[in-house]
């Protein structure tokens, strides 16, 4: 496993462990007043005021060799402002993103992938 993959796997494990610990229930049945634990639905103010027209881009990504590489690539794309959804596959040496072209470009996504040490090229938009 490559160094990046080990670090990402460790970070992912720690995030999952802290999420479970923060919950404090560990799958147990709710105790006490169940109504007090219910979460209110988001208010209308939290809803986006406009629906952006999303585009999809597919990349050929050289250098991904394991699941950790995929996790890192997916996370790097998803954290970019304007990327709605993203995924990657080391088996196919590919990645894709669904994004708002008014907020981000495929070139910016390529730069984020390059920061991980991989080489990405646009296959299809």
Explain what this protein looks like in three dimensions.
The chain has 125 residues and is an alpha+beta fold. It has a domain of 73 residues: Alpha-Beta Plaits, CATH 3.30.70.100. The protein is 38% helix and 22% strand. The chain contains four helices and four strands, in the order ααβαββαβ. Strands 2-3-1-4 form a four-stranded antiparallel sheet, covered by helices on one side. A hairpin with a 4-residue loop joins strand 2 and strand 3. Helix 1 crosses helix 3. The protein is globular. The two termini are 32 Å apart. About 27% of the residues have low confidence.
List keywords for this structure.
alpha+beta; 125 residues; 22% strand; 4 helices; 4-stranded antiparallel β-sheet; Alpha-Beta Plaits
Structural class determined from secondary elements: alpha+beta
Major sheet: 4 strands, antiparallel
Mean pLDDT: 75
Report low-confidence residues grouped into runs of 5 or more: 13-40, 44-49
- Which fold name corresponds to the CATH topology of the domain at 53-125? Alpha-Beta Plaits
Question: Overall 3D geometry?
Answer: globular
The separation of the N and C termini measures 32 Å
Describe the oligomeric state of these chains in a short phrase: single chain
Secondary structure: elements and pairs:
Layout: H1 3-23, H2 34-37, E1 55-62, H3 67-78, E2 83-89, E3 94-99, H4 106-115, E4 119-124
Antiparallel strand pairs: 1-3, 1-4, 2-3
Helix pairs in contact: 1-3
């Amino acid at each position: 496993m490559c160094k990046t993959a080990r670090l990402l796997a460790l970070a992912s494990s720690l995030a999952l462990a802290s999420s479970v610990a923060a919950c404090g229930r560990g799958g147990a049945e709710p105790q006490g007043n169940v109504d007090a634990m219910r979460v209110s639905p988001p208010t209308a103010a939290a809803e986006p005021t406009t629906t952006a027209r999303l585009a999809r881009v597919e990349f050929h990504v050289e250098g991904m060799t394991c699941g950790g590489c995929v996790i890192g690539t997916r996370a790097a794309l998803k954290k970019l402002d304007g990327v709605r959804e993203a995924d990657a596959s080391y088996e196919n040496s590919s990645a894709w993103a669904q994004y708002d072209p008014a907020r981000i470009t495929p070139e910016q996504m390529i730069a984020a992938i390059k920061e991980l040490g991989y080489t990405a090229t646009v296959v299809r938009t």
